[in-house]
Each structure stands twice: as structure tokens, then as C-alpha cells.
Write a structure and sequence with these properties.
There is one protein chain. By secondary structure, the protein is mainly α. It has a two-stranded antiparallel ribbon with strand order 1-2. Helix 1 crosses helix 5, helix 1 packs antiparallel against helix 7 and helix 3 packs across helix 6. The radius of gyration is 19 Å and the shape is elongated. The chain starts with a helix and ends with a helix.
Length: 183
């Protein structure tokens, strides 16, 4: 029963800071100047003058840029965050398999198996949320560079892209198992 508290809190936080923001801002069409955006993104040469995409697509690219920079700037913290994400991906399904096998061979009661799976998922949620602030800080550092480069002509489009990048970080912070519950 206690494991349900962090699970519900994590789902509410994911919805409020992630899915809701993506639903509101994600579909907005944004234009950025390619010669200012792409050198920040990947160092590619300039092909066209402007890039038009949705805020969610540009936010995903901004998040990837921030994570790449973070890996070079602080590889230990970035590795820790990636390890927490892998833990969240692996532990809940593994706990479910072990619990099912234990229930089948009658080593634990069915309610004990459910409790074990919920506890493992709650631990993965807590670790995912605790490792989220450094990633958000990395996104904000890269966002400052984007603002300084004046890649966007309109400030509200720039804000939408930055908020979508942050929302994607919130969305990806929880185990994928919870993504099946909340779409």
C-alpha cells in the first residue's frame, strides 16, 4: 500500500510537468534560423535559411543537444543519470517475472507478488525523479545558449521549444512500464 504513494505522485508529476505541457505546446509550429540552430545542434553545414518544425520535435533535438553537452562536460553525472534510466527500464519487468514465478511455485502469496512488483516500480520511480534535476539543469544551460544565439525570431516559439524539452525530460524520467498506464 505504501508503494502506491510514490507511484501516484510520480504519475501526477509526469502528467503535470510532462504530458500536459507536450499536449499544449508540442504541436505549435516553430521557425528557427537554420544557420544559428544547426551549428549548435550538430555542426552541420547550412542547407536552407529556416527550419520549420513542431515545438516537440525541436524540443527533442534541444534535449539531445543538452545531453550530448552534459556527457562531455560531466560524464560521471550523465552516466549516473543513464544508469538510473536503465535501472527503471529493467527492474520493474524483472520484478514482475520473478514475482510470477514465485507465485506459480507457491513460494509467496499472490498479494505478496503484487506488492513486490509495486515496490520495485516505486523504487525505480523515486530514483528516476531524484536523478532528474541535473538533466533539467543541463537543458537550461543549453537553452541559455539557444537564447543567446537568437535562433528563433519569436520569443514565444523559443519558450515553447524549451518547455517541450523540459517536458520530454519529465516524460522520460519514469519507467516505461508506467508509460503503458499513462498515455
Amino acid at each position: 500500500m505504501i508503494s502506491l504513494l510514490p507511484l501516484v505522485a510520480a504519475l501526477v508529476a509526469r502528467w503535470w510537468f510532462g504530458l500536459r505541457v507536450l499536449a499544449v505546446e508540442g504541436g505549435r509550429a516553430c521557425r528557427c534560423e537554420r544557420d544559428r540552430w544547426l551549428p549548435l545542434a550538430s555542426g552541420e553545414s547550412v542547407i536552407a535559411e529556416t527550419v520549420t518544425a513542431t515545438a516537440a520535435e525541436l524540443g527533442a533535438q534541444l534535449r539531445r543537444m543538452a545531453l550530448d553537452e552534459w556527457r562531455t562536460r560531466d560524464p560521471k553525472a550523465a552516466g549516473s543519470r543513464e544508469g538510473g534510466r536503465r535501472f527503471g527500464m529493467a527492474v520493474p519487468p524483472l520484478a514482475a517475472m520473478v514475482a510470477v514465478m514465485a507465485v506459480i511455485v507457491a513460494k509467496i502469496p499472490a498479494l505478496g507478488g503484487i506488492a513486490a512488483v509495486l515496490a520495485a516500480t516505486a523504487i525505480a520511480c523515486v530514483l528516476g525523479l531524484l536523478s532528474l534535476p541535473p538533466e533539467l539543469r543541463a537543458i537550461m544551460i543549453t537553452s541559455k545558449r539557444i537564447r543567446d544565439s537568437r535562433s528563433f525570431t519569436k520569443r514565444d516559439e523559443e519558450d515553447a521549444v524549451i518547455s517541450c524539452a523540459m517536458a520530454l525530460a519529465w516524460k522520460e524520467s519514469l519507467p516505461p512500464v508506467l508509460g503503458l498506464i499513462q498515455r
